[in-house]
Every structure is written in structure tokens, then in C-alpha cells.
Design goal:
By secondary structure, the protein is of the alpha+beta class. The protein contains 2 helices and 4 strands. It has helices spanning 14-24, 70-92, and strands spanning 2-8, 36-44, 47-55, 61-67.
């Protein structure tokens, strides 16, 4: 996974970057191939905001989260991205691949 972390009106400390990297590592388990993720951390008045843009297989997924502190915002963001990736993976997977078409008129 390639991760790009940037900040808007906030300094990205090594501890904050390590925390975000550790949390975002759980997203890798959904796909076997390379993921690109851009993370933007910002402070708007008293709210801390985390935004992410994720690019699996040419598709672009975007999520945002706000909380009272940056660590909580990152946690909420990772939860949202996790749900989005699960939904995307289910959409890609064909669940009816092994089934034969239903025969009409055959009652046993």
C-alpha cells in the first residue's frame, strides 16, 4: 500500500503518521494487489477532520470523518473505508458463478 499523508493547518507529527499507518494497514487484507491512499488531516475550528481517497483497481473511493480529536477522526475514517472496501469487494465477486439457471416447469 502506498500512503501519502498531508496536513492542512496542522503539522503531521511522526506519532500521528505512525498511528494512521498502523490503522490503515488493516485495509490491505481486502485486496491482494497494490492500493494507493491519500490521507488529508485538517483542523477546522474545534473539529478535527480526516479525509481519504483510496484507489483500488482503477476505482476511486472517498470518505471523510470528523471528531473532537485527530485520533478519533482517523479511527472513524478507517471504519468507513473498511465498510466501503467490503462493499466494493462484494460487488466485484460474482456470488452466482457455480449455480445453474433455474429450469421452469420442473417440479420434481
Amino acid at each position: 500500500m502506498r500512503l501519502e499523508v498531508s496536513g492542512h493547518q496542522i503539522e503531521i507529527t511522526p506519532a500521528l503518521k505512525d498511528f494512521a499507518t498502523a490503522k490503515l494497514e488493516r485495509l490491505v487484507r481486502h485486496f491482494d494487489h497494490h492500493l494507493e491512499l491519500r490521507l488529508l488531516l485538517a483542523v477546522d475550528r474545534l473539529q478535527h477532520r480526516a479525509e481519504a481517497t483510496l484507489s483500488p483497481r482503477g476505482k476511486t473511493l472517498h470518505a471523510e470523518a470528523e471528531a473532537a480529536d485527530m485520533y478519533s477522526a482517523i479511527d472513524l475514517l478507517v471504519d468507513k473505508l473498511d465498510r466501503m472496501l467490503i462493499k466494493e469487494k462484494e460487488r466485484i465477486t460474482d456470488h452466482h458463478r457455480g449455480e445453474s439457471p433455474a429450469r421452469s416447469g420442473d417440479f420434481g
